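re: that chain from earlier
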Amino acid sequence: MSFELPKLPYAFDALEPNIDAKTMEIHHDKHHKGYTDKLNAAIEGSDLKGKSIEDILKNLDMENKAVRNNGGGFYNHSLFWKVMSPNGGGKPSGDLAKAIDDAFGSFDAFKEKFSDAAKTQFGSGWAWLCVHKGGKLEVCATPNQDNPLMPKTGCGGNPILGLDVWEHAYYLKYQNKRPDYVGAFWNVINWEQVSANYDKNK
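^ sequence. v structure.
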């Protein structure tokens, strides 16, 4: 069974003014679709076909660039759409809020650390909030379409929040002002979904 492009859980313009409709349309319908189609082509006829994307990435041969790049692109964007919402922003609550305080000292300290990871990732890549078994949280960043599920990325655990800092994610609205895009992301984070991701993977 082939991987399918997931539908956006909201309209293209739903995250305005933080993320513009044209960027969302191109990002989902062109970029994410491209990763999905190329992933399916890369695994066709191989022993990877029929496996979950998580299994593929956790056991990935990092020299297999087609599966690494397109499998990462498929997984990363599938998470990205879900951790944003038109009703997002604010702060997390419950177990996730406590875990953030335990790991980083405060929500504001976490926000600064995550934002710095996103702003200082050289070139294209992602910033992540990951959870390890037992509930401990970690912030890290990966280049290109790599993610913490892959072997030897210098990042660990399961991603529960990700921010795409490829230029295609923000250039139409923010041009070269990545910090402004990173700042706007906090207004659309779907903390209910991030908390659900945390509860599932801790």
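Strands lie at 125-131, 137-143, 158-164.
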